[in-house]
Amino acid sequence: MLSLRKIKLRNPLADKSQEDRTVLLICLAIAFVFWLLVKFSKDYTVVREVELSYELPDTKAFANSPPKAVFVNLKAQGWYFLVAGITGKDFHLPYRVPDRSFFGLTSAQVRSDLEDLVNDKEVEITNLLFDGFRIVLEDRLEKQVPLLSQYELAMLPEYRLVDSVRMFPDSVWISGPRSMIEPINYWRTDSLVLSDLSQTYQGQLPVRLAEEGMRVSPASVQVTVPVERFTEKSIFIPVEIINPPPDSIRLFPDKALVKCVIGLGNYNSLRAEDFRLVADLDKSRIQEGKNSVPLELLKRPDYLHSVLITPRSTEFFVIKSSTTQEEESATSENQ
Q: Could you tell me the CATH superfamily of domain 140-225?
């Protein structure tokens, strides 16, 4: 409390009237205005960035990227920079590129263009940080290339991809200098990383950004990751005999159990007719005294996973016809 009292006692305005305080504030304001006038009437040197832009013919492209900006030292009174900051004045020099084999800018040309842009005798360009350039112009090439996707997917247990990952569109248009475009045969997307998937995912996938001097369109594509829950299904498939002998053949068993992993969307539509299971008697081991033949699955739906056949082979029995038996009897009597 003692310290607060001392501060109050030391306050020079404590014993002044309200009128005296008002007069004092007016004097301070006048003094501040004069200070601003003196301060901003002085010359200052400020570094400014000047943006450069180029309008090329539709059939031409820069072989190398030209500079997009230059830096310049401007000397002027503080008022100039204050007004420029308040109004948001920017410095931009556009250039129309002629249809020739090269294009260049010199330091003298840019300085002259800057003086025209500033258009103020009170502003002096003291230093231009630009040495000029000369760049070859190439024919512009545009072509369509397929997209190559990059993705890392993780599904919840019992969930799998129903089909391949789809993109729409599946290609992009790239354009730029012929020397840069001709070697490109595909274009990559950004990486797609998804985890704990339990349903189909749809979203936008950006494509890789183009290098300087190139353009790519579109910038993103629609991606679909078809995900579905899978389960196991068992179905009996009849065995078809191929390359049979003249005699009748019987198989045992004549059916095989096919176990497969299938998505719930196709579970009820799967039929025995969707398969072709054969026993090729040309591959039998009858010469070795065995009457078994392996089973081959020649046809199956593409959407199935982990197809297992039980058993892997079947036995066959030859049932000779009466004509064959009579021929064998006649042969035995002749002997």
A: YbbR-like domain (2.170.120.40)
Residues 288-313 have pLDDT tens digits of: 667 888 899 999 998 888 899 999 98
Q: What are phi and psi of 152, to 5 degrees?
A: -135, 110
Q: What angle do CA 252, 256, 259 make, to 5 degrees?
A: 160
Strand ranges (DSSP E) for 130-186?
133-155, 159-161, 166-168, 171-177
Is the domain defined by 230-323 classed in CATH 2.170.120.30? Answer: yes
| Residue owning tokens 């998804």 | 194
CA distance 209 to 212: 9
Report the DSSP beta bridge partners of residue 324: none
CA separation, residue 113 to residues 31, 53, 89, 131, 262 (Å):
41, 13, 16, 15, 71
Q: Which parts of the chain sit beneath pLDDT 50?
A: 1-2, 4, 7, 332
Provide the 8-state DSSP code for 168: E
Whole-structure pTM value: 0.63
DSSP-based helix, strand, coil % in the chain, nearest 5: 25, 45, 30
Assess whether the previous peptide bond of 218 is cis (omega < 30° from 0): yes
The dihedrals phi and psi of 22, each to the nearest 5 degrees, come to -65, -45
CA distances from 237 to 38, 175, 250, 253, 267 (A): 101, 55, 16, 11, 16
Backbone angles phi, psi at 242, to 5 degrees: -125, 150
pLDDT at 2: 47
Tens-place pLDDT, residues 161-194: 888 899 999 999 999 999 999 999 999 999 999 9
Query: Could you name the CATH architecture of 43-131?
Result: Beta Complex (2.170)
Q: What angle do CA 82, 84, 87 make, to 5 degrees?
A: 110
